[in-house]
Amino acid sequence: MGSPSSFCGVTLVDSPVVRLAFEFAKENLDEVSFRHVYRSWIFGAILASKIPAFAKINFEVHAISTLLHDLAWDHLSSFSTPDKRFEVDGANAARKFLEREAPQFDNRQLQLVWDSIALHATPSIAQHKEPEVALCTMGITVDFLGSRFPGGLITDDEYNAVVKELPSVDFKESVKRKMCGLCANKPETTYDNFVRDFGERFVVGYSARVINSVDILLGADWRRGPVE
User: Fold this and answer.
1) Gene3D superfamilies this protein is in (predicted)?
2) Fold observed for domain 6-170
3) Tens-place pLDDT, residues 175-224
């Protein structure tokens, strides 16, 4: 089954590469994760229909980015590496998918997809990037917040209609398991992002070792204490 052209009354972009991304996500994600990325795509489309700044974005880029944004959030994924944040692993996997399946994508489109995925869990930066990048993060956030998403842009009826078709059963517990898996198995990739919070709360023996930027930039022997 290819990707739909509409869902719960919302028009979704439909093209060969989006259909390929839809199937790629379905093949490479567990059911809970697939429903999450699918819902996030729909929520982004709902937001875009209400926000004029998103009216003319590249909706193929948005669809592909959202559908493929969590390819590596499970440390057991074939796309996961030992030394990179899960968002970067996912962005790299999506770029390789497009280089293979969509040679018509130019460098800017590839970069937009990469940025959308790499920054999807860092909204404080993503919101200041291109609208495709911002919308990817916003749709994903709606799947966590529902109608509590700021601005009243998602109604209870809209949220419930999507969740009725794509149930969020076991979603929060699944996220917890995956984040804790990252903390336990590749902790060095979790110290400067939100994943650390799961490690500190739920993973026995996890140490929130913060990378000291001063030591990196100036050296560990740099003068300590406040500047006078």
Assistant:
1) Hypothetical protein af1432
2) Hypothetical protein af1432 (1.10.3210)
3) 999 999 999 999 999 988 899 999 999 999 998 665 555 565 666 565 55
Is the distance from CB of 95 to CB of 110 less than 8 angstroms? yes
Give me the helix-helix angle, 16-28 and 86-101, nearest 10°: 130
**Residue 168 identity:** S
The tokens for 8 are 């719960």
User: Nearest to residue 121, comparing CAs of 190, 26, 211?
Assistant: 190
- The distance in angstroms from the start CA to the end CA of the chain is 66
For residues 59 and 148, what is the distance between their CA atoms, to the nearest angstrom? Answer: 25
Per-residue pLDDT of 75-86, as tens digits, reads 999 999 999 999
